[in-house]
Specification:
The complex is a heterotrimer. By secondary structure, chain B is of the alpha/beta class. Chain B has 12 helices and 11 strands. In chain B, 56% of the residues are buried. Chain C is 78% helix and 0% strand. Classes of the chains: A mainly alpha, B alpha/beta, C mainly alpha. At the A-C interface, helix 1, helix 2, helix 3, helix 4 and helix 5 of A face helix 1, helix 2, helix 3, helix 4 and helix 13 of C. Bound molecules: sodium ion (2 copies).
């Protein structure tokens, strides 16, 4: 059981690694684009598009990563007054809903990506980047990863509940 | 904006129209001959049998998502410019404008009575779409420059906000093309992040405040001698309309195509006079040798695009053939008249 | 009321309930939106969702979020920020509330270089919250000051809100930037006065350095420390602002100058290494993703609100208002404030404004003044519990000891101050309308 959990977790973290790399590329790319344009009056359309293309992997692949690291926002003032068991039940609810929302949005996004793929969509600007469906595919990938993270959290919470119930 | 209402399949139709332009924009959203005016006309002409709810960009979906939404039948109509879809259907840009192509009279002649509209429908049919012209800005302006352009060499190293095909043409003359969202054009031009920016025409440009950021206004947009607003319709929805409602939609679109142009001609005349008289704007065409060079490069760029895509080839050749015919007529009619 | 209108109300209630028991805010938004939308509408509505989500993650202006967050995390992890604030604290000497005032000034400077609320709040919070708490500030005061400071960027140009408003009211972006400048400074001044009063009347909430520590301060060392620790981060903000003013970078891309600069400063402080870079990337990713997670999950909610006729309800309310232009204005202000409890500002601007604009056009209301009022009001909604973007974003980066309760309580006095500033702007429209006329924008 825990072997499966561990490897699924590694998948979420691997996507997070990609997103982290994108952050670094974004910082360097935007700064370089500004300086290249200012100093050499050189500003290729493709590199400009790449700037905002990088927001997608950062935002979408980062979601599951943030949830994994408990960096998402929760309102805690009732939560911290609850019993441990009630807290666990709320966490379980949150995890199940995360699973549901992630799966639903990934499912809703699939036809949107395929529509773009069917048209071979690229940038409308000459010199822009091709394969826009690749960019759109992060919607599916990111929310699927979120669903996976919800599943992992749900399983862990159930295990925690079971452990607490079992006589010491 | 109205509440979203579920489509009802009685003899009355309630449709939705999305728009690539944001709430409040004159011409693109509201005012005479605009998409909301179109919706109102259709409702009145049909005695309320076809109601179209209008959603500006961002109200239902973001600006450039209308094409996919209409193709999937999630909304029935979208108002935009066909050249926005160049990344999906490269030939679509010929149905908005062609650099050094035809003016509005020629464009309308081609669309309605050349093969234009037929080719447009042919292009969109496999995608489950049909389109009609629904508006026109008339000729647009070359744009706002912080420094005068006296020769082709002045273009080299110039930083300019200009999207699309024209951007590619400028780029091959050494212009650093900067893509910027509408809201950032003003601050960027004002501070000199860019040296020049293209937007629409005197009325719309003044609304954006571009004259406060740059004083040299180059006129007669070689890159957009006309600019057609596209009424995009889901083909299945279109086919489900009875013949009389189809006729009403077409008539309302034609009326808007006419009225929006008339409105633009009137307000642009006022705005340009105001810009020159009260805001120290220097309005002039680009020098002839610069235009000549741009024309050469444009021909090569268009040819390269046509080579890359068979559908574009077909539309390109038809457009150019019509233009040749229309040019010789325009030379003895409009052109001669304007210089009388 | 129709069934759909009840559903819209149920959706808001459901969201608040889920959020309050401790379900992640983003998930609470999405779940209530989906549930109400599917009940009221079936599946048609949410077929449009991917287009909206794609719009959020490909929005050029949003690029400033990761860039500014990177700058903030880098300064925090390399402890440059901590050194800076400690030095400022010492330089403020015996002035109670002094560090709070310094943070408002940082907010003004940050605000002048970006216009996205998420970016400024998290950056200011990361830079200042740990130090403020260590220095004995009450968590409520610390949180309130940071949220207020971080939201100043909305009203001080450049600003995303102003850009959108300019589109909607049909005034040029430049005019609105000029119009919002003085009201922004006025608001910051109101905050500073409040902190001075607080430091005077309730020194234990915003204490100066303890006397014995102050005695140990040697003026010469302090001067050197100021140069060493305060100047580099300040230069960074100047670099961002300077690259906009100097015409090197457009407002959004200027953020990259700050990000790059923070790397150089860490390098200069001899603290740049692989671990620092790894930690910075981790911090930037989690915080950026936290912001986007909420923005993305707000989309089904917003879509359902529109689909269920939420704005028709708003509209019918408006039609019942008496009192002419003033009545309409006051109602608009109250309405924006209430909508701010559960809708995000983009949605509010799209729903409330275009609908009411014709009314004000008919009254001949000054559109520049109106837009500035609206911008101020929207900025207040960022701070209003229980659903204020600034509050959530602060929660996302706050250390474990800081609770939602601290943040909510801390924000309240600043909401009051904003009402005061809004009242001033209401009574004296010249604060907004004078500058654009004076400089000919
Ligand atoms: Na700002
Ligand atoms: Na709020």
């Amino acid at each position: 059981m825990s072997v499966v959990l561990k490897s699924l977790e590694r998948a979420v973290l691997a996507l997070g690694w990609i997103a982290r790399a994108c952050v670094l590329v974004l910082v360097l790319l935007v700064a370089c684009n500004v300086l290249l344009r200012y100093v050499f009056s050189w500003s290729p359309v493709g590199l400009q598009e790449l700037e905002w293309h990088l927001i997608s992997p950062i935002a979408l692949l980062g979601m599951a990563y943030a949830v994994h690291h408990r960096a998402d926002v929760r309102v805690d003032f009732l939560h911290e007054r609850m019993s441990r068991r009630a807290q666990a039940l709320v966490d379980l609810l949150g995890a199940m809903l995360t699973l549901g929302v992630g799966a639903l949005i990934a499912w809703l996004s699939w036809p949107y990506v395929m529509q773009s793929y069917a048209m071979g969509e690229g940038s409308p600007d000459p010199g822009g980047l091709p394969y826009r469906y690749g960019l759109k595919a992060f919607l599916v990938l990111g929310f699927a990863a979120l669903a996976l993270q919800g599943l992992l959290d749900a399983v862990r919470t159930v295990m925690r509940l079971a452990q607490e119930r079992a006589p010491a | 904006a109205p509440a979203l209402v579920r489509a009802r399949s009685r003899s009355a139709f309630t449709w939705r129209m999305t728009n690539a332009y944001g709430p409040g924009s004159p011409f693109y959203v509201q005012g005479p001959g605009s998409p909301t005016d179109f919706c109102k006309k259709v409702e009145e002409m049909s005695g309320g049998r076809l109601k179209i709810q209008h959603f500006a960009a961002g109200e239902l979906i973001p600006a450039l998502e209308g094409f996919d939404a209409v193709a999937k039948g999630m909304v029935e109509m979208n108002a935009a410019n066909a050249y926005f879809w160049a990344g999906k259907v490269p030939a679509a840009q010929y149905f908005t404008t062609v650099p050094f192509g035809m003016n509005t009279q020629g464009m309308n002649a081609w669309l309605y009575h050349g093969d234009g509209l037929k080719l447009w429908h042919e292009l969109y049919a496999p995608l489950g779409l049909i389109a009609f012209p629904m508006g026109n800005t008339g000729v647009q302006m070359t744009g706002w420059f912080r420094k005068p352009i006296n020769s082709v060499a002045d273009l080299n190293g110039l930083k300019m906000r200009i999207p699309g095909l024209a951007g590619k043409v400028y780029a091959s003359l050494g212009v650093a093309v900067r893509l910027l969202p509408g809201g950032e054009i003003f601050p960027a031009l004002e501070r000199g992040v860019i040296d020049a920016a293209e937007f629409v025409g005197p009325f719309q440009d003044r609304r954006l405040g571009l004259h406060r950021a740059a004083k040299f206004y180059y006129t007669t947009g070689w890159h957009e001698p006309t600019n057609v607003t596209e009424l995009l319709i889901n083909k299945k929805a279109w086919d489900s309309l009875p013949k009389d409602l189809q006729a009403i939609v077409q008539a309302a679109a034609q009326a808007c195509n006419n009225e929006s142009l008339a409105w633009c001609e009137a307000v642009n005349a006022d705005a340009l006079a105001d810009l020159v008289a009260n805001h120290g704007v220097r309005a002039a065409p680009l020098p002839p040798d610069v235009v000549a060079r741009l024309k050469e490069v444009t021909a090569d760029t268009l040819e390269a695009g046509a080579k890359a895509d068979p559908a574009t080839r077909k539309v390109h050749d038809a457009f150019m053939a019509f233009r040749k015919k229309h040019e010789s007529w325009a030379a003895v009619s409009e052109k001669t008249f304007l210089f009388l | 009321m129709s069934l759909n209108e009840w559903l819209a109300i149920g959706m808001i209630a459901g969201f608040l309930a889920l959020m309050m028991i401790g379900v992640p805010v983003a998930i609470a938004l999405a779940v209530s939106g989906f549930a109400a939308g599917y009940m009221g509408f079936g599946s048609m509505l949410f077929a449009l969702l991917p287009a909206r989500l794609y719009g959020v993650v490909t929005n050029y202006t949003m690029m400033a979020i990761p860039l500014f967050v990177f700058m903030g995390v880098m300064l925090e992890k390399s402890r440059v920020a901590e050194d800076m604030l400690d030095t400022i604290g010492r330089a403020m000497g015996g002035l109670n509330g002094g560090m709070g005032i310094a943070i408002i000034l940082v907010g003004v400077l940050m605000g002048a270089s970006t216009g996205i609320v998420g970016a400024t709040v998290v950056t200011v919070a990361m830079l200042t919250l740990p130090t403020l708490l260590r220095r004995g500030y009450a968590p409520t005061v610390a949180c309130g000051t940071i949220c207020a400071s971080g939201t100043l960027g909305q009203i001080i140009p450049p600003s995303l809100v102003l850009i959108l408003l300019s589109e909607i009211v049909g005034e040029s972006v430049g005019t609105l930037f000029a119009a919002a400048f003085l009201p922004g400074l006025m608001l910051a001044t109101v905050y500073v006065i409040y902190l001075l009063l607080l430091g005077w009347r309730r020194p234990h909430l915003a204490p100066a350095l303890p006397a014995e520590e102050r005695e140990r301060i040697d003026r010469r060392t302090l001067g050197r420390d100021l140069l060493r620790t305060v100047v580099p981060p300040l230069l960074l903000v100047v670099a961002v602002l300077g690259s906009i003013v100097g015409g090197i970078a457009a407002p959004t891309e200027a953020a990259s100058m700050g990000a790059l600069g923070s790397v150089l400063i860490a390098l200069w402080a001899r603290r740049l290494n692989a671990t620092l870079l790894r930690e910075t990337l981790h911090g930037t990713l989690t915080i950026t993703a936290m912001v986007f997670f909420i923005l993305l999950c707000a989309q089904p909610f917003a879509l359902a609100f529109r689909g269920l006729g939420g704005e028709a309800m708003v509209h019918s309310l408006f039609e019942a208002v008496p009192g002419g232009e003033m009545g309409a204005l006051l109602f608009l202000m109250a309405l924006l404030f209430v909508l701010g409890f559960f809708l995000e500002w983009i949605e509010i601007s799209y729903i409330a404004l275009p609908m009411f604009l014709p009314v004000f056009q008919a009254y001949g209301t000054d559109m520049v003044w109106l837009a500035t009022l609206v911008a101020m009001n929207l900025q207040m909604s960022f701070l209003t519990p229980p659903f204020g973007w600034a509050l959530f974003f602060l929660k996302g980066v706050a250390p474990p000891g800081v609770t939602t309760r601290h943040i909510y309580l801390g924000a309240l006095p600043f909401v009051g101050l904003q009402i005061v500033a809004l009242g001033l702007l209401f009574a004296f429209p010249q604060v907004a309308t004078w500058l654009p006329k004076a400089i000919g924008w």
